[in-house]
Amino acid sequence: MSQSKYLTAPVPSTKMPAGIPYIIGNEAAERFSFYGMRALLVTFMTKFLYDAAGNADFMTEPQARKYFHLFVASAYFFPLFGAILSDVWVGKYRTILILSIVYCFGHLALALDDTRVGLIAGLGLIAIGSGGIKPCVSAHVGDQFGKSNAHLLEKVFGWFYLAINLGAFLSTLLTPWLLNSAPTWIAANFPQWAPSDPVQLARLGPHLAFGVPGLLMLLATIVFWMGRHVFVHIPPQGAAPVFRSITGEGGWALLRLIPLYLFVAVFWSLYDQSGSSWVLQADKMDRRLAPGWNTSGALGWLGQDLHTEQIQAINPFLILVLVPLFAYVIYPLAGKFVKLTPLRKVGAGFFATFAAFVIASLIQESVDAGGRPTVYWQFLAYVILTAGEVMVSVTCLEYSYTQAPREMKSFIMALYLPSVSLGNILTSVVNDFIENPDGTSKLEGAAYYWFFTKLMLGSAVIFIPIASFFREKTYLQEERPAPPGFDGAPSAGDLPTA
Asked: If you ran DSSP here, which 8-state letter would residue 484 be given?
């Protein structure tokens, strides 16, 4: 058998693996593309959707909310297929590269076609592409480490999550502007490029807002390809070893993790409403950062309403602040008083999510009473919700990898991600069930928010005794010396050319 030109196991080293910068750069650009697109969906479906004849074909708010969560559920269901493709047949690197190309075509469909056909085709391809690569990317991070540098794994998963949220933060600020304001700006500054018809000018917004994330996804694919010579490429195991693992040691790992994932699904059912019901709620709030501020001048935007979709940007911004704050301050400080296990962190995150939805429910009560509360109340809810995300999502990401047998890393990571899918299916089903034939809802206004608040509280309370029965076992990749003459650096012929 010929020797692989790539590393197939981590090299004994106490240093950071050379492939990590490529993975982090890829993840930042890919998450820019996904969250930039995702932030616009509810607004796009309710205000910018047209039919083939060019007539308005807008969805109602309940329809948009239901379809938004169905898309998110699909995007987090396809990780199962990506994991099987990776672990059984082609490996993580090829799976990520192939499905990233599919992902790019999904963005292209959304950018070119603003009808329901383009919406379904684009979201379908993005769900397959983004979903398929999710378990492989996070498992690919872990594959770069062996026992000698395993102490760096927690830090890298933290930085990995920071890359996700840096991309999400920047895109959630930019793409709403491209959707809502860029066409007017182009018409004012470059009239020769702008359509003269007002409807066609408005339709330019989705082309720009979906096109820019598509370009970032293309950049993400190129960055990932450039790192191929410094990555550790764990070979696919084939069907037989994976099957043996599922029926043996891996089966026990699954049984240990599935109860946790069912509880986490409830968390995601609430958390992902920051992209649907919280967006619709923000549309009825005072979104000025400085009410009464002079709206003229360079800082005039402080006195103007933010775009509804931009409110979501506070979540990834807070992640950038709270991940290091928890890792270097809160966890070490709390660890002096109580043993901080992963499951205790997750349980605390559940209660934080409950508190965030208490605030959202009270906001909606004010809206229902005819008020227009300041968006700072929703900012407070985001702070608490994001703290819950750090304790639940970041912890589960690392915990899932370490608890998975070596030959099932992608598969186990894939089983964590459908907990997001299950949570969004729950939200979509609830929205479908509560809708009356006349278009009214069985859970009007604040009653809708209180329903999910109580659901999270019940789940958090039940999780406490259940967590005491969990048993842990950690698995990491085995190390091997590098092949003679291998330095991990690409040759001149391997570098991309213009």
From this structure: T
Are the beta carbons of 110 and 210 closer than 8 angstroms?
yes
Specify the DSSP class assigned to residue 232: B
Residue 228 gets which letter from DSSP? Answer: T
For tokens 């339709």, the residue is 203
Q: Quick check: 479 and 144 in contact, CB under 8 A?
A: no
Q: Which CATH class is domain 20-289+304-469?
A: mainly alpha
Q: Shortest CA distance to 446 belongs to which of 359, 361, 360, 332?
A: 361
Nearest 5 degrees, angle CA 280-CA 284-CA 288?
Answer: 115
* φ, ψ at 232 (rounded to 5°): -85, 120
Render each residue's pLDDT in the chain as its tens digit; 498 residues. 445 677 777 777 778 887 888 888 888 888 889 999 999 999 999 899 999 988 999 988 888 888 999 999 999 888 888 888 888 888 888 999 999 999 999 999 999 999 999 999 999 999 999 988 887 887 788 788 887 877 788 778 778 777 887 888 999 999 999 999 999 999 999 999 888 888 889 899 999 999 999 999 999 899 888 988 888 888 887 777 666 666 666 666 677 778 888 999 999 999 999 999 999 899 999 999 888 887 777 787 788 889 999 999 999 899 889 988 998 899 999 989 998 888 899 999 999 999 999 999 999 999 999 999 999 999 999 999 999 999 998 888 777 777 766 656 656 766 777 889 999 999 999 988 887 877 677 888 899 999 999 999 999 999 999 888 776 555 544 555 655 555 544 433 333 333
Listed in sequence order, the DSSP H helices in 326-341 are 331-335
Domain residue spans of the chain: 20-289+304-469
Q: Which alpha helices (H) appear in 76-152, and where do they start and end?
A: 79-84, 91-112, 116-143
- Closest by CA to 173, choosing from 313, 319, 13, 19, is 313
**Which of 14, 10, 341, 22 lies closest to 151 in space, CA to CA?**
14
Residue 75 and residue 126: Cα distance in Å, rounded?
7
Select from 272, 263, 415, 456 the least CA-distant residue to 343.
263
CA 235 – CA 237 distance, rounded (Å): 6
- Helix, strand and coil content of the chain, in percent to the nearest 5, comes to 70, 0, 25
Q: 214 CB contacts (<8 Å, ≥6 apart)?
A: 33, 104, 107, 108, 110, 111
Q: What is the pTM of this model?
A: 0.80
Would you give the DSSP letter of residue 52? T
How many residues does this entry show for the chain? 498
Instruction: Provide CB contacts within 8 A for 355, sequence distance 6+.
Output: 384
